Structure prediction request, 470 residues.
Amino acid sequence: MSENVMTHSNVRRTVVGHIREDVLAYTAGQDAELDRKLIVYDCVGTAAHVVMLAELKLRPPVLKRADARAVVSVLAELAAEAAQGRFEIRPEDQDGHLAIERRLTERLGEIGRRVHTGRSRNDQVATALRLHTRDHMLGMALDAAVLADVLLNFGEAHQNVPMVGRTHLQPAMPSSVGLWAAAWAEDLVDDAAIALDIADHADQCPLGSAASYGVPLPIDRERTAELLGFSRPTHTVLYANHTRGKMEALALHAAAQAMVTLSRLAEDLVLFSMPEFGYFELPDGFCTGSSIMPQKRNPDVLELIRARTARVAADAGVVLEILRASPSGYQRDLQETKEPYLRGLATARASLRIMTPLVRQLRVRPERLRTAFTPDVFATDRALELVASGMPFRDAYHTVRARLGELAPEDPDAAIARKTHLGATAGIRWHELRRRIRSARDEARREQSALYRAWSRLLRRRFPLTRESV
Prediction:
């Protein structure tokens, strides 16, 4: 390829073909670095495509079955390299998709140059992203279920430990550590369900849509969907392209929901582990020190979860803003959705996983929790006692309010034992919450295992390729 060199404002720029090198650098952005996280999925999608091409009843064939087996064998090697962090994307490759094609051509010659028949980089990357979304939404659901289980175990172990319930952060009514922890567990069950819903929504294969308008070849999109573990292909080829970005935004909103739960839980733990409260004691391994103050135990992990929640929520918004003014068909704008998508999902999963051992090692200080009860915490209970004796509630409310200074201390253990209705301190159905957690966990494992079995059959290599990729 010929090169021309020109100088302008003392800046040397090289023009490669018709595209300047500085333009190539600008348009490539961080694509090569980001694509490394998608290479495994890209190899899987490419394997399904070549198997389908070899099955087409065309004369001469696009690919012979033996050729397809050779391509799949090399793709399995490349996927293993990528899973181990050893896959190289060169500057001249532009992106991971062309890097895979280069490696196939280097190894297999003309066969490698046939692999891209009947597809575009548009449906190639869309397929890799769909595979990534399904894998990581199922993984996120599993992460959330695991943390929910740890919180539920923590709550059940301390279900009879009284804890002042608060509204507006002010003392409100008698509560318990059990209720506090079970509530966060139930939040996470919902977050797992949202992630499972997005995984199900992503269960449509865009491969074969090409540049949004199909190809004049008798390709079998249902076959590639089956090979990749999808239940069905997307229907219209243009819609397949329209889902780019929207699918990433949905996944990021699921991630943001989980992060909001974590952020609020983190805020509770920061507050309630302060010396002024002392309800909980954070494990040493999750606290850092100060460069100047020897006594400090800073809750840095919890503080970073709060901050990173804002980032994940912003990532979801960024993707939607990029899409907002995009017309039909592919636009290069979509390249900019990849970074927030990959970053947001990675942040959410890492945050769920770091919170799990923190909660598992969290220590409760029952004596501090009990001494936090002041007579006014029992004001509502006293008003309801008057109601039970026949007084209208509003009269009971004003009677107690007028005599707050006369309230006597009460036994917080007895107070939480009296609340026996569903979901109250003495009415938590631990087995029911555990069943819901187990159901979400089992569904995520079952669906992810089905995906891995499909990919293992396709590449003849067991998935996941490394433990870290789960």
Remarks:
- Residues 148 and 355 are 10 Å apart (CA to CA).
- Strands lie at 3-8, 11-16, 19-20, 162-167, 170-176, 280-281, 363-364.
- The mean pLDDT is 93.
